[in-house]
Amino acid sequence: MSKETNKNKNNIKNIFSLLFRKYSFFRVLSYLFVIVAVLSAISVATVKSKKIPVIASLNPVVGQAGDTMVIRGSNFGAIRGTNYVEIGGNRVTASGYLTWAENLIKLTIPGNVQDGLVVVVTKAGKSKPGFFANEAEIPVAVPKNIKTLQPVITEVTPPSGSYGTLLTIRGSDFGTARGESKVVFAANAEESSLGSGQGELAADFDFSTIAASESDYDYEYWSDSEIRVRIPDGAATGSLYVQTEKGKSNLVQEEIKLAAGEKSYLSRKTYILQLNSDIDSIDTKNGTNITLRIPRPVASSWQPMVELTECQPEPVISEYKNTVIHQIWLKKATSKSEKIRFSHNFVVSTYAIQTKINEKAVKPYSQEAKARILFKNAVNPDSLIQSGKEEIKALAKEIITVNGKVEKNPYTMARLVYDYMIQNYKVRDELRKSDASPLDLLKSKSGDAYDMAIFYTSLLRSLEIPSLPIAGILVDSEMKTRAHWWTEFYIEGFGWLPVDISLGMGLPYKSFRPVENDAEFYFGNLDGQHIAFSKGWKEIKQTISQNSKIVYRPKTYALQSIWEESSEGNVNYSSLWNDPIVLGLY
Asked: Where are the transmembrane segments (predicted)?
């Protein structure tokens, strides 16, 4: 109890003592009644005045530093005083506010803005949050373009190349920034007749073309008159063009040659997938915010079409860093028996991959290749791939040393590591404990599909071979799904090669078409029954606060550091993430 409260009590006692000495008992009661009534009125007024601020709308939801943010709602206070706004856990400073009124706040988004929650804080407490995404963090920005002319290509150099070759495209009206514009190539994909229903599902998608890849960092420079872009994995000899919001450019022929061999994309399949997640058994002492990040299937040369067709409830953002973002506010009075279901339907098309490599034509990586962001991101260790461990480096070097000579050909090195693991390790059908380390294979020589993919990728990276662990699902001939993991490694001038070491070891699996030799087939080839949800490890920032509670789901169909995040406070709930199921195949 504060000193001020004690002082007030003593003052009241002194007043009562004086009243009893000077006046009659009934007069004292009258005075007492008046005092109680006044204190009650003050108390009621105080309670009424302490109304929690409420955010009704937030604009923009996606923006950048310097933009004006408008927050509408109630109980903000007529003047700002000590009240403030937080964006992504950072308090907006006094100079950032343009307007502060009871129902309206205008502010300038600060330079250090991060993705995260937006809350209004007053003496009465914090509002329920809104969500803000920093446009600078989104791979595809959406700038304004005042151009009214369609783009025109006047020159493309060189006129031929292989995957990863840097092209210079000159012309006009490309736009001063790329935004949603793209460079489109002919696709190296088999033309297949569409099965029943597939034509309708894929009606708006052009499988005969492929755009340069953002995930492979193909775009290196973009201006109104010049573009520098790399030939994407999966392109074929044919016409290329520039696509902007104003339309398509003229077509220019580009020849694609793969000196190291051949790569084919065959037998397209189109799946309808459903992902369901449930939250129930909710027990919260205070209102709390929960953010869910639902993985989306990832687009690639062999998985070109990914579309979210149904989503309940409506997400905050339907596509952000390969996730669907949901936010819910669990009220204090939420019933424990209440269940909240999040349902997503995706249409995904995949190809089988077949490769033929001329091993002698594969060269060590050039200095230009090593300088690429793609190379660095796929070689450096991360939270998942412990390729910097000395025991990993030592084993990898031992494997690639043949008759006293250290192999330098990256394709040959990858094959030597693959063959070594096939001969010396055993894959288990059941998954080990979620916290078991793949590095256990150094001693146990036995592990599950997750262990094998992570361990193989770690060995390749320790040899400076760009490689990525792939997480997704495997669909068997009975349309049953299971979480699965495999690897892709990169060959300069040839692109990504798939390696499913677990299936190569003989992991039980009912494929649509029997494979004659698993060990031979699953090095460099892949069937169309693999659906990928992530390529490489995805580190996600906490958006609510550094002290928020997070949920990480190891050994699942996506490799991301955060699946759920809940605000601080006393909150208990149960979440169930179901594996994706196949509703249809066309």
From this structure: 28-47
Low-confidence ranges of the chain (pLDDT < 70): 1-50, 138-148, 192-203, 283-287, 331-337, 568-571
Task: Name the domain boundary from 257, 282, 304.
Answer: 257
Distance, CA of 261 to CA of 351 (rounded, Å): 19
Domain span holding position 195: 152-257
Three-state DSSP class for residue 547: coil
Distances in whole angstroms, Cα of residue 220 to Cα of each of 135, 227, 374, 396, 439: 19, 8, 12, 33, 37
Distance CA(444)–CA(428), nearest Å, equals 12
The tens digit of pLDDT for each residue in 149-202 reads: 899 999 999 999 999 999 999 999 999 999 999 999 999 988 754 455 555 565
Residue 262 lies in a domain: no
Q: Which of 257, 279, 298 is the last residue of a domain?
A: 257
pLDDT tens for each residue of 33-55: 555 454 555 444 444 446 899 98
Residue at 446 is within a domain: yes
Domain shared by 382 and 522, yes or no? yes
Determine, yes or no, domain membership for 147: no
223 within some domain: yes
Q: Is 273 within 8 Å of 531 (Cβ atoms)? A: yes
Please give the single-letter amino acid code of residue 19.
L
